[in-house]
UniProtKB/TrEMBL annotation:
Domain Glucose-methanol-choline oxidoreductase C-terminal: start-end pairs: 439-552
PANTHER family: LONG-CHAIN-ALCOHOL OXIDASE
Region Disordered, residue ranges: 160-181
GO molecular function: flavin adenine dinucleotide binding; oxidoreductase activity, acting on CH-OH group of donors
Keywords, comma-separated and alphabetical: FAD, Flavoprotein, Oxidoreductase
This protein's name: GMC family oxidoreductase
Amino acid sequence: MARKLPKVDVVIVGVGWGGGVIASELTRQGLTVVGLERGKERKTEDYFMVHDELRYALRYEMMQDLSKETITFRSNPNVRALPMRSYGSFLLGTGLGGSGVHWNGHTFRFLPYDFEIHSKTVERYGQKKIPEGMTIQDWGITYDQLEPYFDKFERMAGISGSENPLGGKRSQPYPTPPMKSTPSMKMFEEAAKKLNLHPYPLPSANLSEAYTNPDGISRAACQYCGYCERFGCEYGAKADPVVTVIPVAKKTGKFEIRTHSHVRRILHTGNKATGVLYTDVTTGEEIEQPADIVVLTSYVFNNSRLLLMSKLGRPYDPTTGKGVIGKNYCYQVMKGGATGFFEEKEFNNYAGAGSLGMVLDDYNGDNFDHSSLNFIHGANISVSQYGQRPIANNTVPEGTPSWGKEFKAASLKYANRTINVGAQGASMPFRYHFLDLDPTYKDAFGDPLIRITFDFEEQDRQLAAFLSDKCGDILKEMGANKIEVRGKLGPYDITPYQSTHNTGGVIMGASPETSAVNNYLQMWDAENVFVVGASSFAHNSGYNPTGTMGALSYRAAEGILKYRQSGGGMLV
């Protein structure tokens, strides 16, 4: 029998960006908060002088152990799902700070179009523009309503950047100036302007200068070491929950973090949660933590999985289109883009940072006319200089032998003579893209794994081809001697890495018939449960999700406080 602990005001499941923001906001208002994190403790000192590509980038030191818990995948409901046994398409983080520790730091705001995508698409093109089976919907909130929360997240994190000329209106400039501009970034900027496009520096959570945020947290500037993606930052220059919001919550004395705590069920009576049941993985003991309010702030897959295992909310049924938990799983279209090879020019590709780049949005959202195109939405196009670490980067032209003298010669020649212009495409939801519990495979505790049903659609193939050609045009203007355009998008393959930008499953909206949470991320079917994270996205934009997830986290924190102060009920 589980050991029952004293009740607290709020219990948080997962202590990453969402959990850290919620904890910092609630504890400052005097609420007692327990954060349950199934991974281990982390601190900046863990990464001092640890630029170990093999350990972190290739052996996944900061990622979930797939032998104990993974996902299963199938391309459609007519085939059997199989477990993901080794990392490929995306990476599942674990430990204090979650994926917010090993991210690159790209911090975009979704476009105004995104939040009203169904209404705006129909208004401009008519209902027939939306293909059969596509389940886009408005989010139940507008960009203007969310803008103050975007600003709050950016000031907390110290985002470095300058205004997007084609983005939503800002109430204030970025808190810190853009990062340095490299030769390849300058070439991209000049070429884009010659093509009448609108480039701007990539918004970065890697600080361009020393910064003290409104919470009094001071951090150092980025050193451009090139070890951001899949790594913790030894300087604290990359904004992550461990060096920003978590210390604020801990300082109040109201926040208790319990690591190695694997939450297995949300306990509830009727339409209200009473707490959570978790296992201390160091002892195997089952523990019940009662709470007035339960907040799910774990990763996309786990948010849906916990609700489904706890029988909380209505599971999505793709056959009828009814139900909401598991609905509208989306990913990202990353196959588009082009690589340019330069014979005379040479670049220092091994220096960089996770968010060092130049980007444009002329082909993102509905910033361009889709009337004659067989897709909606689009992608951001960018050139980035992350820092090409020596083991995993070895770009050579197509047709080069994969070994031997010619391979070695081409590797040396082009090591610093290639530039990639990439397109990060939006992912639209379809009726048969969803999450549910796998009927066969279980984790180390005997609980069912989450099952993904997903494949690329004609929408995605058309988008990838269109954007790849645009990337090639920019590289041509940049003066590349040889250009390889990657325009063909085949079936979704879970084997190669593409993007850890999984979204949906517990989506937000204006109606309980079509969404799981309202615009405060409060569950329609359980008023004292809030589900925070990219699981609330009703589709995925042509951007990285963290900035929008951060803004929604601050709004959810405000909603939780309103709910507490009003004594309960659904928020409006």
